[in-house]
Amino acid sequence: MINKDVEKLLLKVQKPGRYVGGEKNSVIKDKDKVDIRFAFCFPDVYEVGMSHLGMKILYSLFNSKENIWCERVFAPWIDMEELMVKNNIPLFALESGDPLTEFDFIGFTLQYELSFTNILNMLKLSCIPIKSKDRTELKNIVCAGGPCACNPEPIADFIDLFFIGEGEEVDLEVMELYRQCRENGDSKEDFLIKAAQIKGVYVPSLYNVEYNKDNTVKSVTATHNAPQKVEKRLMMNMDDCYYPENFVVPMIEIVHDRAMEEIFRGCIRGCRFCQAGFLYRPVREKSAEVIDRQCHTLCNNTGYDEVSLSSLSSSDYTKIEELLTRLTEWSKDEKVSISLPSLRVDGFNDEIIDKIKTVRKSGLTFAPEAGTQRMRNVINKNVLEDELMETCSKAFNGGWTKVKLYFMIGLPTETDEDVCGIAELGHKVVDQYYKCEGRPKGKAVSVTLSTSSFVPKPFTPFQWEPQATEEQLKAKQHLVKESIKTRKITYNYHDSSTSFLEAVFARGDRRLCKVMELACERGFHFDGWSDCFSLEKWLELFKECGIEPEFYANRKRSFDEVLPWDHIDYGVTKEFLINECKKAYNSETTLNCRQKCSNCGANKWKGGVCFEKRKSMV
Amino acid sequence: MKNVRVWYKKDGAARYISHLDVNRVMTRALQHSKLPIWHTEGFNPHPFITFALPLSLGFRGVKESMDMRLLEDVPEQEIISKLNQGLPQGIEVYKVTEPVMKPGKIAYGKFDIKLSSDAKTPEELFFMLRSLLTQDTIEVEKHSKKGVKLIDIKPQLGDYTLEKLEDCVQLVITLPAGSVNNVNPSLLVTALENSNSIEVYADITRLDVFNEEGKSFE
């Protein structure tokens, strides 16, 4: 529902379709007939938030319950924000048009660290106090979940409770507890103390953090009987796990404008830089039959003519061929195309080529991640140069002329040789093109090399590593650029200053809350957007707060240091991560979960890949 | 194979989407409907649809149309209900006919413009608008791909009625609309704003489009 006051602003802003709701499949309920109103907030613009699968799953799940009404809220873009502030219009939810103060829960999804300022800004735009302790009543419970909840500490002062791990069950349990507490007339504090007893719930206000003189964490102590370690929640049976039959279909173009089907959670690979690879262990697959059915239902209900199979590494799906066969049975006739993102270099076989060839021939993207074999061994990206060349040959012979390769720079132990290796690999791919007999005749090859700056993340074997400094990263970017000798290669690199801030917040502690608070006061928002981000302004803030950001980004931690996120438990043991880190220093690789169990700790959930029969055993 | 003209309304939340968005929304509704639509046969097959005349973002439309090609005969009611099942609120198909006129023949549009302002009463607005419309020239900046240019829209104005309602002023006016000559009614709103240094809220509805002879598009 569009509020009258909002309507007057709509023709003065870019893309007003962001603020009007009314899409097909959006859910409208009678607010007087529900017990709980949940505002699902995505701290970025509509087009980004609407592309997020997690939100689609939880939105449908919550709304499938008769007594819950879940609505969507996005961060208004800066033009709209300005007009809303000027006209005293508080932030509103798209379905009802109601301000956030009317909601029982205000839930944020934490997808990237640079969206943290948007969370506080969205609370501010809603006229809701940003600090948890200033919200005293049992209403407007501010909660958060998603990957960045793995280190919740930099926003611990603002969020009442965090959901650790997968939300399908725990979110509903917390909402039910809230309903009971409200009926009993409990206080907000009573509710939070009780909520902390639910597995997967972290209530930061119930934990005391002490620091050492050198500002490292000395201890984190649970109070009010809260668990000393908060263990993540996860869904073990993906076939039985709730999956939406319907997506809200946006009217304006969004980033990923297609149906999405999750094919498995987790990743067998254990690349040492990749946080998702450790957070979502163990790998749990959906059966091909269920995926096929869900894809078909989604396309039928939305009218999308494209469905993307979503996972961390789609070619690792064990029954990929069976799945593609099932899907093509109906998708061809119904003119639906299937896309397979996140293909590994070594997973690009003829079968897959044939299947995706029927779809539009855009560029192909692979992520070798590092330029030399030594470096790839360090990060455990078990891809060989020969495999990359073979894959590129297949692609070129299959008619592709555009290849994009993703790399990281600033990886632990990286040398100039490794950095130059990125350009060299690009040259080899160009040469490979001209060696291919089956290449499209008369067409030039185009190879794009992209580098991003490595950000060490919690719960990875590199969580103790310093991030390379901005000067070092710039020098590395320069080195890649200088090493490229042909115009058939394009080089893109990601700005290193945002990576620096990302590194600070990724491994930050509660001392950063005061920086966040000041950032909110000063009107910081959309740090993930170059339109708004300014490292200079951030550095000023840090200075004012007496905090050295380098302490978080560029400092090497020792294995025995208490890390700010040590009281959060994702199942992967610290011993395993230490061992992986040591192996990285020796350029030793670790086999993937399907080859050999490396005893990471995730088998305690008694399911998934940990209990699959390995090929070598059958 | 049969060409049909699908008539729909654009209102509610959907009035805030652009013409390109309408195209996408319609394509998706067609996919959803599973109606036997002819697809283009190029490299990238897609349902073949054409719109009579794009409607500006923010305008309501009560008689919008889209042409498509059916591979076999389908009853009108079936087309209407199947398409509406796949459309968002605000876009509603209400009629399917055989195309009579070519979209290229469209020359005029009739618009209902409701104007209000926080700073002025409907009465004050009424007089401001009346004096604007009776000026010898109405100069306004027109933004196009080639840049900004100052044009006089006065000679382009067609018949109009002006009325003061309870909470707004209503102007119903015919303006050139089409691929050759086009005067967007929002230019008139801008002219009103500029000549009086006020901010005006305009609620614009396209009522109909006509050919050169003034015959309603069908």
Report on the architecture of this protein.
The complex is a heterodimer of chains A (618) and B (218). Chain A is of the alpha/beta class and 618 residues long. Chain A has a domain at 4-231: Rossmann fold. In chain A, 33% of the residues lie in helices and 14% in strands. Chain A has 20 helices and 19 strands. In chain A, the strands form 6 sheets. In chain A, strands 2-1-3-4-5-6 form a 6-stranded mixed sheet, with helices on one face. A 4-stranded parallel sheet of chain A has the order 15-16-17-18. In chain A, strands 10-13-14 form a 3-stranded parallel sheet, covered by helices on one side. In chain A, α6 runs antiparallel to α7 (188-195). Chain B is of the alpha+beta class and 218 residues long. Chain B has 2 domains: 2-99, Pseudouridine synthase I, catalytic domain, N-terminal subdomain (Alpha-Beta Plaits, 2-Layer Sandwich); 105-211, Alpha-Beta Plaits. Chain B contains 4 helices and 10 strands; from the N terminus they run βαββαββαββββαβ. In chain B, the strands form 2 sheets. In chain B, strands 1, 2, 3, 4, 5, 8, 9 and 10 form an 8-stranded mixed sheet that branches. In chain B, strands 6-7 form a two-stranded antiparallel sheet. The longest helix of chain B has 15 residues, at 19-33. The radius of gyration of chain B is 19 Å and the shape is elongated. The mean pLDDT of chain B is 94.
- The helix/strand order of chain B is EHEEHEEHEEEEHE
Number of domains of chain B: 2
Please give the number of β-strands of chain A. 19
CATH topology of the domain at 4-231 in chain A: Rossmann fold
Roughly how many Å is the radius of gyration of chain B?
19 Å
User: In which order are the strands of the major sheet of chain A placed?
Assistant: 2-1-3-4-5-6
Oligomeric organization of the protein chains: heterodimer
Q: Which outline of chain A best applies? A: globular
Q: What is the rounded Rg of chain A?
A: 24 Å
Strand residue content of chain B: 35-45%
- So, CATH architecture of the domain at 4-231 in chain A? 3-Layer(aba) Sandwich
Q: Percent of residues of chain A in beta strands?
A: 5-15%
Distance between the termini of chain B: 20 Å
Taken from the alpha-carbon principal axes, the silhouette of chain B is elongated
The biggest beta sheet of chain B reads: 8 strands, mixed
CATH superfamily of the domain at 4-231 in chain A: Cobalamin-binding domain
Q: Architecture of the largest domain in chain B, CATH level 2?
A: 2-Layer Sandwich
What's the CATH class label of the domain at 4-231 in chain A?
Alpha Beta
Within the CATH hierarchy, at the fold level, what is the topology of the largest domain in chain B? Alpha-Beta Plaits
